[in-house]
Amino acid sequence: MSGIHRTWIDSWDKTKNSILNGEVTEEQAAKLVYQRKFRNTLSKKRQRNKAHVSGPKDDSNEQVVFETTLVAEKGQTKDDLSPLARRIADGVFEMVKQKGYQPMKLWEQTADCVYITLRLRSLRPTLK
Fold first, then answer.
1. What is the count of structural domains for the chain?
2. What are 8-63's pLDDT values in tens digits?
């Protein structure tokens, strides 16, 4: 297993254990994943773009501008991902949609890791 996959699994395991131990509810966990995995990573991505680009940047032509892994577990197929992981990822996905973004949810897998990734084509929410 690669180091990055191990990091994703360890991160999700911490969140999952806090739910199973009763330290946080599923709703609170989804908010934590939203903040840690989506909002903080998106903020870093925006800062990097500002540092490298002067003036306004039109990112509409890019296929993928932002991607972050929400949950990851050991396994080889989509069926190996726990229902809890699916519910948390769905909750985060809905939060992102409510903020005006148009996310894509992708199920991905390697030989020993299955994970859900959230992908955006724009770093800014669409106007309603």
1. 1
2. 999 999 999 999 999 999 999 999 999 999 999 888 888 877 665 555 555 555 55
Residue burial 37-68, b: 16+ Cβ < 10 Å; e: rest: bbbebbeebeeeeeeeeeeeeebeeeeebbeb
95/88 Cα distance (integer angstroms): 11
Q: Is 127 inside a domain boundary?
A: no
Collapsed DSSP state (helix, strand, coil) of residue 105: strand
Strand partners, 68: 118
Q: pTM for the full model?
A: 0.83
Classify residue 56: in a domain, yes or no.
no
Q: 32 in a domain, yes or no?
A: yes
As a whole number of angstroms, the distance between CA 52 and CA 28 comes to 35
The structure tokens listed for 106 are 């992708």
